[in-house]
Amino acid sequence: MKIGIIGTGNISHKHFKEFSKIEGVKIESVCDVNNENLNLFISKFGKHIRCYSSADEMLENEKNFDGISNATPDKFHKEVSLKVLNRQLNIFSEKPLAENYQDAKILADAANKYNVINMVNFTYRESSAYQKLVEILKSHQLGDVRHVSANYYQSWLTSNIWGKWREEDRWLWRLSKEHGSNGALGDTGVHIFDFTVNAVGDIKELCADLKTFKEKGTKIGKYTLDANDGFTSMIRFENGAIGTVTNTRYATGYANTLILEVFCEKGAVKVELDEQRNKWSTLNICEGDNIHSIKWEKIECDQTPSNFERFISSIRKNSNDQPNFTQGAKIQKILDMCIKSNDINQWVDIK
Description:
The chain has helices at 10-20, 35-45, 55-61, 77-86, 101-114, 128-139, 169-172, 183-200, 290-293, 307-317, 325-344; strands spanning 2-6, 26-31, 50-52, 67-70, 91-94, 118-121, 145-154, 203-211, 219-220, 223-224, 230-237, 242-248, 256-264, 267-273, 282-287, 297-300, 348-349. By secondary structure, it is α/β, with parallel strands linked by helices.
């Protein structure tokens, strides 16, 4: 199976490794307008890979792709994905699907129009514990959902565990709207909202507060530090449940952690995903007699397929698995509504 990668920045290295693990799958060509990134990629993964200086050049010269991986920066997602879709090729895209709902819907509609396999890389779907949590909630084993708490914690504005953000471009662009960042909301909020909605159900209304801390400074070099550093949102779900979804880059003590707690009529479930993936298979559940003794049972869950494996399997079966572009557009609409709610300081209706 022949796969091409558009964009050779840091995330593309992950794409190469994950696709290469799958039997019968081969990365045959890559492209990037950034020669430095392209040369680094080729030096790391092999000069046998054909390389091009643009997506147009690669798509014009390479034939019979089984799928294309869009690993470009956020601001190029729509432009690149649309080129791939217009050639009616299967596509695997990094999140977010696009920078706003209007563009995301264009991509979702095009994917449906051309009937190609399409997927957004919401990484945390790969947790087997999370998959089990979703299964339990959908089965109604614990009854109706009543309350939800979803939190995404990062600490790279207070810790140098991933490097010194004041000195490295790979971090600074994430703090600047001009450089294509929607801040913590767009970068990691997209994950925690997908995490929540896929498990609990669609959101009816929300009220969001986005915060940019001016105390860290307003500009470093060419980067204006005006993107949000975190947010908190109150949620009303279509199914009657309520909850909160929050996200911050100031979570001292946490490198990269997602915590989802769902409290239902007849019990509760929770997962905590850590940077090292030590807890990715551990589901916590409180039900039955444990409700009254306040005890949580830990369930170790069997490994589930990665998004990369789901994409390849979807192509082979000609049946689109989740998370697809329609889901990506749905999540982008939620992000847009968070911005609107913050701007007008009111609850907003998602529809």
